[in-house]
TrEMBL record:
InterPro entries per the UniProt record, alphabetical: O-antigen_ligase-rel_domated, WaaL-like
GO molecular function: glycosyltransferase activity; ligase activity
Species name: Acidovorax soli
Protein's name according to its UniProt entry: O-antigen ligase
Membrane topology according to the record: Multi-pass membrane protein
Enzyme class per UniProt: transferase
Origin organism lineage: Bacteria, Pseudomonadati, Pseudomonadota, Betaproteobacteria, Burkholderiales
GO cellular component: membrane
Amino acid sequence: MTVRTYRWFGRSASVGAFMVPGLALWLPSGYSYGAALLLLAALASAPVWWRRPAPRAAWWLTAAFSCMAALWLLDVGATWGWGSMDRPVKYLLALPCIFYLMTFEPRASWLWMGMAVGAVGSGLVGIYQIGVEQLPRASGFTNAIQYGNLSMLLAVMSGLLLVVQWRRWVAWQRLLLVAAIVLGAVGSVLSQSRGGWLALVLLLPVCAWLLVRTTGQRRVYWGLCVLAIAAAALSQVPAVEQRVDEARQEMQVYQQRGDGRSSVGQRLAHWQLAWQMGWDRPFTGWGRAGYEQEKARRVAAGLAHPVVLEFGHAHNEVLDLFAKRGLPGVLLLFAFYGIPLVMFWPTARRIRDGAGKMDRESLSLCLVGVMLPLSYIGFGLTQVFLAHNSGNMFYLFMCPLVLAALHERRARIGCGRPF
């Protein structure tokens, strides 16, 4: 391979690092454009990366993705036709991209710009849909929950970049990141999705604790207080306040009357049923087809609320897998989230340079990597995030992009592999 060709594959990796988060919510299936570029580059460069040894982290990530692909393959059947192959195929196609990215490592700066542009674009799309198209809820080009949650995630990631690398950024970059934080949060508010804000309860304390633990700057806690005040202020926005009040009332109605027709009520009905079905077959689960059939049987027998027939999942990631695949499925989901969480956890080996000083770009990459599984855990409390294309694609390609960018950064500052 010539030097020019090698450089072209390297640039493609960096452009893909920008496109995956940068276009995710701007365009219909925006997250797919960067993924397609990375896949094409991975296939074209296969003779190069196939011969090179990959770090252990790449193999661990490959194992996590492969096990989940195998789990989704269990859902393949004649009932859903070729469409049932959609999810496992995406997981398998992401595998060559892992090894391509570990060979042609993208620069973190492209990833940073993509996150900021993605959050800004998300907010602008939401404002347009509410202000011009007069939609009741902003949904981007997916459903409102997926859009709102990913918009919030991009806002949190932009906030981390602003705080951790404040001295590095010049004025226009700081303004861009501030705009990303504000507009990403606006997109979430306009979507009226409550799951993203629930995930913040998990994300913000972890972010603050990790920042204090790694940097020793206790003023981060003051920043968390400011964010908490800002979140409280946003909760007073009429649309948000109304949604919170609705949730409270819907929970009371379900507890008093068992009414599952509301948004909260149907979730509680799904959770209760999935919990019962999971314990009925804790080691095998009911399978996707069996889950639907057993739901219908229990509704007909008066053992479950009819609202559960309107959805193909339990509105909770863990309970949905527990009902369909039993405890083994739940353990695979924990590994799917746990492996990246362990890989990106900001240890001294991963965030300090050869002289023992803090490298803030390495720290930023680790924190962004930690936020990926943590946010998905939070989102999965009230939504089966992996039942949607946007949730799968964003996670499948952001994890290897962050991992490869971290490797590139560690090599550039003269440190050994962090894994």
